[in-house]
Design goal:
8-stranded mixed sheet
């Protein structure tokens, strides 16, 4: 049953339209967006699809075909940050952010269906926020530009839901173009669509969802962000974006002598040094990746991915045994490179492979998980897809893994 049909069955009338917004996978540039740095996401074919209609009575009704829960009904005048409401907090947060920005949103009915895996580090929440923001912007004649849609969706997640994410996920969902990766400068939201036709070069980018669910609201993400901000203050810069790669040795020296790490993760100075090192080197890895793609050396991106994983694992310490197992087993089986993607502590990894080696690498990963008695991961290709858009009335979500 399509989302429009579910809407009609649930609410008793026709929706005014159907919209879709994709999840994303990040090729390179992790934990850099809230440091005003560089990122390079691409949209997935997996989407959140919403059938929506306006209301004039100040009531917000939302329902998801994926949760097994009933309709959540809220009063738009009573919406308040950090007020809970489970998954409904994401569309409710968008309504709150629109109204707080002065836009006269008087309510809505929403029916959602999504194929973006939740908890897999593929931005299921951003897809939900962006699809809601786009639908309401069009229905209420607000006409927000794409980057403003992304900013508003980010504000919903930061201020209303309470997750201190950067803007990469929302920008990717709102602005990506089919067949391209998005080179985004998060300081000024300057962006460039970079062609990424892997199939034409005999390559495949795989997403390996470890099925270890992550949650960025548990404090670990916020602690890394606070540590990065502390490092910037100690170095006398506004954000770590201002620390050039060539300046890194001097910057690390100014942050104090390296302390021996231990079970506790080392001293506070050591922790901040590690965070700074990751952010500065990952910004540099984005620049190296762009240079490789511009030169037509897509295969050269593989080692950069693996290098990025080592930094996320050892400096930022946001990996987990399952993510490390994906990377090590894939690379041992002949992958060109691999790394965890997203916020970490579970979620997904990406693996760049020769198309001819795809089956061999997937089997090696699955065998490695089985040998350790771990739940088999889910593997599917990352195909650079379109950003948020309006669909035909009876469209359903695509991209089922």
């Amino acid at each position: 049953m399509s989302v429009a049909e579910r809407f009609r069955e649930l609410y008793g009338y026709e929706p005014e339209g159907v919209w879709a917004a994709p999840g994303r996978v990040n090729l390179i540039g992790e934990y850099t967006d809230f440091n005003d740095g560089f990122v390079m996401p691409l949209a997935l074919p997996h989407t959140a699809v919403a059938a929506v209609a306006r209301r004039t009575d100040g009531v917000l009704r939302v329902h998801s075909a994926d949760t097994g829960q009933g309709v959540s009904e809220l009063a738009v005048d009573s919406l308040a940050p950090r007020s809970g409401a489970g998954w409904a907090a994401y569309p409710a947060g968008v309504v709150w952010a629109l109204r707080d920005a002065g836009h006269p949103v008087t309510g809505m009915d929403l029916q959602l269906s999504s194929t973006v895996p939740t908890g897999a580090g593929l931005s299921s929440s951003a897809a939900l926020e962006v699809v809601t923001a786009l639908a309401l912007s069009e229905l209420y004649g607000i006409g927000l530009p794409r980057e403003e849609l992304a900013r508003l969706a980010q504000r919903a997640e930061n201020a209303f839901v309470g997750v201190p994410c950067g803007i990469m996920d929302q920008m990717a969902s709102a602005c990506c173009v089919e067949g391209h990766a998005l080179h985004l400068d998060t300081r000024d939201l300057g962006r460039r669509q970079v062609p990424l036709d892997l199939a034409a070069r005999g390559l495949r980018l795989l997403v390996v969802d470890t099925r270890v669910r992550h949650a960025l609201g548990d404090g670990a993400y916020e602690e890394r962000r606070a540590g990065c901000e502390a490092g910037a203050r100690a170095l006398g810069v506004r954000t770590l974006r201002e620390v050039e790669y060539a300046q890194l040795p001097d910057a690390l020296g100014r942050l104090g002598a390296e302390a021996a790490g231990g079970a506790s993760g080392g001293t506070p100075d050591d922790r901040i040094r590690r965070y700074v090192r990751h952010v500065v080197t990952d910004n540099h890895r984005v620049e190296r990746t762009i240079a490789l793609l511009d030169a037509g050396d897509v295969r050269g991106v593989g080692p950069v991915l693996t290098e990025g994983h080592v930094s996320l694992r050892d400096d930022l310490r946001v990996s987990c045994p399952e993510l490390d197992l994906v990377v090590s087993s894939a690379n041992a089986a002949g992958a060109l490179g691999a790394r965890m993607t997203g916020g970490g502590f579970g979620g997904s990894a990406i693996v760049l492979v020769e198309s001819a080696d795809e089956d061999t690498v997937i089997k090696a990963v699955l065998d490695a998980f089985a040998a350790q008695g771990r739940t088999a991961p889910r593997v599917f290709p990352a195909v650079p897809s379109a950003g948020a858009r309006r669909l035909s009335r009876d469209a359903s979500p695509g991209g089922t893994p």
